[in-house]
FAD dependent oxidoreductase domain-containing protein
Amino acid sequence: MRTLVQFGATKQILIDGKPHLGTDRLVPLLRNFRQHLQDLGVTIKFGTRVDDLHIEDGRVLGVIVSESADEYRLRSQKLEYDAVILAVGHSARDIYQMLHTHNVELVPKDFAVLGKMSLINGPNPLK
Ligand SMILES: Cc1cc2nc3c(=O)[nH]c(=O)nc-3n(C[C@H](O)[C@H](O)[C@H](O)COP(=O)(O)OP(=O)(O)OC[C@H]3O[C@@H](n4cnc5c(N)ncnc54)[C@H](O)[C@@H]3O)c2cc1C
């Protein structure tokens, strides 16, 4: 929460029981966050898809990427790094399939569900 405030969120979120940023306020906050990372020397690549891991002798040496518009991965690039952290969200099926082909052990999350319902007219079926 303090990090969010550092980059522009209202201080109110530090004391609210159910803190809410507001989607419209998130955009400038993320720009500030990005600028901070770039000032520290971080390179951020947009429109770049990770297609595969670069693995040699059982060690991950980097990633193989292509431009997201390059559907057939004709111009792939190998990028080497000391470490690779995948933070691809829960819907990145291509990445999970790729990891499966490398025999990476995948463990499903415990069951999670979120539901939202808005009724404009009619009776509330939950009553
Ligand atoms: C409509 C909606 C409303 C929500 N509202 C809220 C809310 O109010 N409050 C809240 O706390 N949470 C909310 N959430 C949930 C929240 O958005 C997620 O929990 C959160 O974004 C998950 O973060 P993440 O970093 O794990 O994954 P993501 O935010 O999904 O980030 C994963 C990133 O990896 C990238 N990626 C995936 N595969 C590749 C690849 N092969 N190569 C390169 N990049 C790749 C994706 O493009 C994406 O940018 C909402 C979600 C939705 C859908």
Observations:
- The pocket of flavin-adenine dinucleotide is lined by residues 49-50, 87-89, 92, 94-95 (CB under 6 Å).
- The chain has a mean pLDDT of 91.
